[in-house]
Amino acid sequence: MRSWRAVPLAGLSLVVAWRLAADGCSLFIPLAHGAPLNRVQDATSLRPGARSATLGSASSGVASRISVAGTWALRAIGLVALAARLGGSKGSRVLRKASAAPIALPNGSPCDPMSTIGYREFVPRLYNWCKKLGMTKGLMLPSIGFCSDENQGYPTMLILKHFGTYPFNHGYIGGILALDRHGPHASHGEDMVIFCAPHVGFDPDTKHFGNYRRIQVANKEAQSSTCCGKVAGVLAPYRDQYKKILGRIKVRLEGEKVLVSLADSIERDSCDGRGIVLKYDQLLAPGAYDAPLYQESLAKVYEGSDRFAAAVREAFAGEPRASAPAPKASPEAEKRAGLLSLLLPGQSPAKEEVTEAPALAPTRADSWRSLSEPFLSKVFTKNMFYFLSTPLEGEANRLERLLLPHMPYVLNGPWDPELMAAMICCQAEFGRTVHSVEYEKSYKGKNLVVVSGVNIDICPELGSEGTFPSTMFLPWAAYVQLKNGKRQVYEQAEFVKLLREQSNENADAINIEKGVLDLFTNTPAKVDFYRNP
């Protein structure tokens, strides 16, 4: 029987859940590919060790699970502690870090996806950290290196609210920074803050990165589009080439060997300075490229390398196998089937009439199979190919230039390509920006903070017209350059730790709506277009 003591505990859990919802807080924000992201406006924190439960799911059903006093006491202590932590002033609440597998990026630096923070929390904490570094209220001038996408407006408005001024614009489309704007930025303020943040959309329904619902589009079926569109545009031709080459490489088992069929069009397509180039030493056995086993009308057949052959065998061993087609029933079996249809509810056929489960269809490893089949596509790893491209000059092509060396990893990695591209862009632009401001004369004698990360735009729900989009910030690193000569780079773990230590209350934040209304109550200045003679 359920203990009566569980009743007040259930009430307490509801209070905690209500308070958490009021604060816009979520206890589970994993961003790795395939993991769910809660639809909570500006979800901000994580419970240590949280794996797959929001506070709502943890609190609902508490009363039904707690039936003994000992269990109740332990749960009560935990909930009371949690309520005390969340029920106090919001300024004292800290972000809790959870453990998670890092996102391994091409340069070998890890990125912890559990460090994601909502912009409503991120901006005031950053502002308070800037003040601790010696920056002065009213003298800070933020600058944004954001994409031009309309869904970047919400982060921009929060920067306006907490820093008290509309930010300077340092960004090109795609999140590339315009480094030639350092001088104008530095001349407009005393204490400088630069945000480097490319962006990527995230759809909680599909649990994939790279798409966003544009609620201003009237046709609801056409609302979903790429995000970031610039990144998607850069990736599109490489994705197309990658998809084509998977269909032009075929494999099959022949005794102890794995045979590889390469279409003749592969080499032709890479002869014009663009396209995919195969690394034959990784794909084929030593010396096999110069001595194909035999020639077909449209392809050459080779022996695969030991590593590639092992990966192919493993893929075939794990191939999803459908049930074999059932053999045609005999007349006697058809007669028994007809009798079975006459059984009354609850009756079962005799044991001898129960048929065995259908056998699995045999694998087709001894026939040619294309790498375009999903279970085989992953054997074509990033170290087996690279891309050629014509010269990419100018700022308009900078995003493609920085992604090109990493394109095999972006397209073949374990995460959505749009997320990987945004993170690589974030890393590259942070390094380029820091190296440029170190020697920029206009920033000498000023306080400067450069923060880097990825803006994650949470796809709005259908029918959510009129509400602000929810944007998360995945921190990467920060750079500090102070008047006293101090210069320091804060790597991700230390940067996130510093943000957690700051209050999320900002006494200096402005009331944007009141400020706009004041414009109508104050006497406007007169604009004279003509001078008196």
| Residue fraction in strands | 15-25%
Total DSSP helices: 18
Biggest sheet layout: 9 strands, mixed
Mean pLDDT rating: 76
Compute the gyration radius: what is it? 30 Å
Number of strands: 20
Task: Please mark out the parts with pLDDT under 50 across 5 or more consecutive residues, or reply none.
Answer: 1-99, 339-347, 350-355
Shape: elongated
Residues in helices, as a percent range = 25-40%
Distance between the first and last residues' Cα: 96 Å
Broad structural category: alpha+beta
What's the short version?
It is built from 18 helices and 20 strands.
Topology:
Blueprint: H1 6-22, H2 55-59, H3 62-65, H4 69-87, E1 103-104, E2 110-111, E3 117-118, H5 119-132, E4 140-145, H6 153-163, E5 168-169, H7 182-187, E6 191-196, E7 199-203, E8 208-209, E9 211-213, E10 224-226, H8 229-248, E11 249-254, E12 257-263, H9 265-269, E13 275-278, H10 280-283, E14 294-295, E15 299-303, H11 306-317, H12 331-340, E16 369-370, H13 374-377, E17 385-388, H14 398-403, H15 407-412, H16 417-438, E18 447-458, E19 470-481, E20 487-490, H17 492-501, H18 512-521
Parallel strand pairs: 4-5, 4-6, 6-18, 7-18
Antiparallel strand pairs: 1-2, 3-19, 7-8, 9-10, 11-12, 11-16, 12-15, 13-17, 14-15, 18-19, 19-20
Helix pairs in contact: 1-4, 5-6, 5-17
Q: What does this entry look like structurally?
A:
With 533 residues, this protein is α+β, with helices and mostly antiparallel strands. Helices cover 35% and strands 17% of the residues. It has 18 helices and 20 strands. The protein has helices spanning 6-22, 55-59, 62-65, 69-87, 119-132, 153-163, 182-187, 229-248, 265-269, 280-283, 306-317, 331-340, 374-377, 398-403, 407-412, 417-438, 492-501, 512-521; strands at 103-104, 110-111, 117-118, 140-145, 168-169, 191-196, 199-203, 208-209, 211-213, 224-226, 249-254, 257-263, 275-278, 294-295, 299-303, 369-370, 385-388, 447-458, 470-481, 487-490. Strands 3, 4, 5, 6, 7, 8, 18, 19 and 20 form a nine-stranded mixed sheet that branches. α1 runs parallel beside α4 (69-87), α5 packs parallel to α6 and α5 (119-132) packs across α17. The chain is elongated. The protein starts with 5 loop residues before the first helix and ends in a 12-residue tail after the last helix. 35% of the residues are buried. Residues 1-99, 339-347 and 350-355 have low confidence and may be disordered.
